[in-house]
Amino acid sequence: MRTKLLDRAEELARSRGFDAFSFADLARHAQIAKPSVHHHFATKAKLSQALILRYNERIADALTEIAETSATPRRCLERFVDLYREAAQDGQALCLCVAFSAGRSSLDDDVLDALAAFHTGVLGWLRAALSAHGRPEREAESVLALVEGAQLMARASVDIARFDAATAPFVASLAQQG
Amino acid sequence: MRTKLLDRAEELARSRGFDAFSFADLARHAQIAKPSVHHHFATKAKLSQALILRYNERIADALTEIAETSATPRRCLERFVDLYREAAQDGQALCLCVAFSAGRSSLDDDVLDALAAFHTGVLGWLRAALSAHGRPEREAESVLALVEGAQLMARASVDIARFDAATAPFVASLAQQG
DNA sequence: GTCTATAGATTGATAGAC
DNA sequence: GTCTATCAATCTATAGAC
Question: Which residues contact B34 (CB under 8 A, 6 or more apart)?
């Protein structure tokens, strides 16, 4: 049940913005009464925190898997871009982290800490991947900003082509080197 | 009064997310009664539309001014990055367009059209600026995604340094050429 | 763990007087 | 153009029975 509630909350937060999901909606979707949601998550802040912590772990696992199974550093970075491309869901959704960064409630301290931890983790992974490919590590922030911004543009136009257009030059630059 | 209301709405939308501003808040700030706001903007959707249309014009004017007064194509693109840097307000706010792209109500048709027009305008400007600098026009989407994503990261960490770190490689690449 | 019932606040919006 | 009064809906959250 906990998982079911989190799944729905994530879906709504990513497709319609952080403030878009309500206890009423989660309850309806899980087919329980609205106050029953509070048994699993005392407050909305706690729910938000659980949401981003779970997302954190999932992405971390995905990145580890990519790093371990990619034949070349180039392929590794290509799959990173693809990970964010899939998260964009044809321009209809955003990475949970992007949705939280733009939302009001992200000012909650615990959530903000979790958000910072997310960025730190991804940036660390990116630095290692870039380094393995022979590129400067300081490009990590650029690459993360690029894919996050690309998601935003794709959502604004509800067209994944915008994501591809934005990331194409970076992907092409990977081919030129290693 | 209309301007006063729009100013407050923009401030809230950019600093706390699109869904953060309410008629009650606008009324309080303008020191009029809450229903009086409806005299200026019949619905919240109309208000949102007016908000982004005004933003559209302001940015278009700023970009025209930059294009006309920059000594070199390189300086022109540097000032573009600076425009977005200032809009980030030390990591406490977002470009209105970014805030709208992430929010729920951006699904409103009129607002979505205005959002698309905004992107089209900025991308057109960027293509001309990049071309003048001897870079491929297809980098326009990348540059826009970069500065929008950089704003998002700066806001997540409430630290403008993240914006600078993300945009630094691009700015450096401008110096190498023209 | 789930329920009914409800509190208490806030939301966008309307009617009608001045 | 502004006001008072009010509406219906929605929100998060709590109390207490089963």
Answer: B23, B24, B27
